[in-house]
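$ run holo --ligand "NAP" --emit tokens
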Amino acid sequence: MESDSNPSPVLYDIIILGASGFTGKYVVREALKFHNSPSSPLKSFAVAGRNHSKLTQALKWAAAEPNSPPPSIPILTADTADPASLRMLCSRTRLILNCVGPFRLHGDPVVSACVEAGCDYLDICGEPEFMERMEYSYHDQAVENGSLVVSACGFDSVPAELGWMFNSKQWVYPAVPNQIEAYLSLESDKNIVANFGTYESAVLGVANVDKLMELRRSRPRRSKPKIPGPYPRKGTTIEYQKEFGLWVLKLPSADTAVVSRTLATLTKHPQGLPGVKESDKQTEKRKKFWSTTKPAYFGLKLGSNCLWGLFQFITLGVSIGYLGRSSIGRWLLLNFPSFFSVGWFSKKGPSEDEVESASFKMWFVGRGYSDLSRRMSTEDGDKKQEPDAEIITRVMGPDPGYSTTPIILLQCALIVLAQRNNLPKGGVLTPGIVFGPTNLRERLEHNGISFDVISRRVVCKFGRCPF
Ligand SMILES: NC(=O)c1ccc[n+]([C@@H]2O[C@H](COP(=O)([O-])OP(=O)(O)OC[C@H]3O[C@@H](n4cnc5c(N)ncnc54)[C@H](OP(=O)(O)O)[C@@H]3O)[C@@H](O)[C@H]2O)c1
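-- output --
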């Protein structure tokens, strides 16, 4: 095993920081699947963190060899509170995969070190304030230094990003979407449980929601895309979706914030962002990709197949929302996670069986116009124009936190390694803008995350007909 005191530094394709964490060790397991296989660009990687023996244990676990020595993956020591150790990581890799959360507490020095060194950075953050703060603090420098910084390369927010794009692409001229609404349902025949790290990030996010609002107010307004038709009507807070058999509730989520940043970038750059050294063929491909991706109003709702499940979401939301704002409340929430989250979060995280049995479905209901120009010219005023067409698509995959997230993070990393010339030179960007025009969707499909068209309907004189 190589130690970080090696005098002649070796360059690794990637370094996984926070590899000893609950999610980090699943990311290591996913990386081992692609390490050194003939067609994989991942020829070398190292793990990093602050505790050597925990990292050794994580490697053993990831290699599924509890009683053998860990696989010969180098272990590097780094602490997010020690900038020199982060600079050392950046000098030894092209790409850091950051799994150290909550990101609001630990992420800034890692992004800063990467941007300074011109090293690429991906993470699994689901905290809008951190992502937007990094964008405001480091975007220009990251562009200049050629450092690509992409947060939310996990369940937050790639299924939502690729999911709305996939739905949007089903609308072929003269059909256009007006709204794409996502309905998320988590499923398991065991308990649905997530690790404390995600819960802590959510509690701190709620506690600091004022800072997010303040940050947004302090910045120029983002450009908004031109979307055909009026703003969609607000539905009721809780509704029953007969189509999917789900009770659903509107959810303030990282996904909505990330998708709206992608839409704002697209409004400014309708052909997307050019790759740093892309070929003419790639330029054509990118332009075609974005010209067939139409913007739409996006929202996300959380669903459960029974009202009791929805009641549990509400209890969790109210507990975090109410208690998360005071220090005593936060102390209670963070010390008794299972109690306040009705068993959904625990300090020891889900068992392997619980991870194995969990899955998610995300339905995307696109509503729009089968032929916008005909519809607008046949009725009075466009304010009351109701969409007449609907396309439903679905993204489906294994456990969101510990299977889907590592799959997505690794596939994004492999794209950065193999297709760097086709990606923007640098900047703090969303996964949709960076990976939308690549083959990320096809890669996810090969790795167990599916994208399907479920139905297409239009209002016709016989009621609702296929279109
Ligand atoms: N996007 C998604 O869908 C998704 C899915 C899963 C998780 N996440 C996010 O990922 C983050 C981690 O979650 P988790 O459940 O894996 O948490 P966790 O088990 O607590 O892991 C945290 C990791 O960070 C490391 N760490 C903490 N402080 C550090 C420091 N000062 N320097 C270096 N390393 C440090 C820990 O190292 P030690 O082992 O030494 O303590 C550990 O490896 C959370 O923010 C969570 O929200 C997102």
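-- notes --
The first strand starts at residue 12 and ends at 17.
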